């Protein structure tokens, strides 16, 4: 191990805290052998639905050294997005908490770039790439390996200190850093997430059938929502937080302090009637710079109509 491996690792963790990250853990870059069979099986069972991009870059997903040439370490980070106010209290129709504010891809990547720039000033130049849900990386696997948390029965990364309402990000670099160790599992016999899912998307312990997931149906699915979802959407028009909301560990979640993730007034104030009458112009105004842009106006209208029409039946 390089003599500076521990010093650099400590420096990086201190810097991560300064830049607002909740947790930071380090793993040695290499092949994720333990993830090969579970990932292959998940794909073979069609649990990715129409997300065909999940089949691409299979080797890179399992080995970051193929994604970032010369990489030696994976730095995993988490960034809190738990809101101070739950918009679901104001409207019958709901949006997942992660999408209340600006697009996390852009916000967190900018923070990562600034953090890396400061690190290079202090420890010297090094090669790296930064990611947040933006490349073929098994983020939860690396976060688990680095000790940030464990993968819960709902397939989200959980921590005893903060629950699961946070984004994951990575810095894959050519620095040799002292690695951390995986933490223990603390789900025990709890089944709250499994029992609460209205579409039975959590098909077994830590395996989610994406094609049954409300988040998939409202965001990733480009065609019409299947009738099997009728009456089971629980009023989620974009995303779904049910399996996180019922998780006992999320009683420890505390509000974030990132201004760019704060809910827009329109998201908090719109009632069901206003969402029903949503226009392209209002959509573009409310969701400018928002993750909700991913589903586009037509997709969000499809979701709203599917939910509300189902109530008439």
Automatic annotation (TrEMBL):
It is an enzyme of class 1 (oxidoreductase). The keyword Oxidoreductase applies. The keyword 4Fe-4S applies. InterPro entries: 4Fe4S_Fe-S-bd, 4Fe4S_Fe_S_CS, QueG, QueG_DUF1730. It is found in: Cytoplasm. [4Fe-4S] cluster 1 binds at residues 187, 190, 193, 247. Its EC number is 1.17.99.6. [4Fe-4S] cluster 2 binds at residues 197, 213, 240, 243. The lineage of its organism: Bacteria, Pseudomonadati, Bacteroidota, Flavobacteriia, Flavobacteriales. This is Epoxyqueuosine reductase. Catalyzes the conversion of epoxyqueuosine (oQ) to queuosine (Q), which is a hypermodified base found in the wobble positions of tRNA(Asp), tRNA(Asn), tRNA(His) and tRNA(Tyr).
């Amino acid at each position: 191990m390089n003599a500076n491996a521990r010093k650099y690792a400590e420096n990086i963790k201190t810097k991560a805290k300064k830049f607002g990250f909740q947790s930071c853990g380090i793993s040695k870059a290499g092949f994720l052998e333990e993830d090969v069979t579970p990932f292959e099986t998940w794909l073979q069972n069609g649990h990715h639905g129409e997300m065909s991009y999940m089949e691409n870059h299979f080797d890179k997903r399992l080995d970051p050294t193929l994604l970032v040439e010369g990489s030696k370490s994976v730095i995993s980070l988490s960034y809190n997005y738990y809101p101070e106010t739950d918009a679901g209290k104001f409207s019958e129709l709901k949006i997942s908490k992660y999408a209340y504010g600006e697009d996390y891809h852009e916000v967190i990547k900018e923070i990562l770039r600034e953090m890396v720039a400061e690190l290079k000033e202090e420890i010297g130049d090094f090669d790296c790439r930064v990611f947040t849900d933006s490349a073929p990386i098994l983020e939860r696997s690396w976060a688990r390996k680095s000790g940030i948390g464990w993968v819960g029965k709902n397939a989200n990364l959980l921590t005893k200190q903060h629950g699961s309402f946070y984004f994951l990000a990575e810095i894959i670099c050519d620095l040799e850093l002292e690695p951390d160790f995986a933490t223990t599992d603390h789900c025990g016999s709890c089944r709250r997430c499994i029992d609460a899912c209205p579409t039975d998307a959590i098909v077994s312990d830590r395996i989610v059938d994406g094609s049954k997931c409300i988040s998939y149906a409202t965001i990733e699915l480009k065609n019409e929502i299947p009738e099997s979802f009728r009456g089971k959407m629980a009023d989620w028009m974009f995303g779904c937080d049910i399996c996180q909301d019922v998780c006992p560990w999320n009683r420890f979640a505390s509000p974030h302090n990132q201004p760019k993730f704060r809910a827009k007034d329109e998201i908090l104030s719109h009632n069901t009637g206003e969402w029903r009458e949503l226009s392209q112009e209002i959509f573009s105004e409310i969701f400018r710079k928002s993750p909700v842009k991913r589903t586009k106006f037509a997709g969000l209208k499809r979701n709203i109509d599917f939910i509300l029409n189902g109530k008439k039946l």
